Amino acid sequence: LPPGSLAAVARGGGNVWWNAFGDPGGAALPGAPQSLLVTALSSPARVEMAWSPPASGTPQSYHVYRSRNEGPVARLTFPPVTQATFTDGVPPDGTVCYAVSAVDGGVEGPLSEWVCVARGAPGAPSGLTVTADEIVVDPRHRTPHALESSSRSAPRGSAKAAADPQHSPSAAPDTPERITAGPLPTHRVVELEWQRPIFGLAPTRYTVYRSIDGAASVPVAVLPSTAKSHVDFDVPIGTLCYTVTASNGYGEGPPTAQECTSAFVSAPAPAGENASSGAFERRARDGAVHGVRVLPPHSLRAFPNPFNPHTRIRFRLLSAAQVRVDVHDVRGRLIRRLVDAPLGAGTHVLRWNGRDARGADVSSGAYWVSVQAGAQRETLRVVLLQ
Question: pTM surpassing 0.85?
Answer without folding.
Answer: no
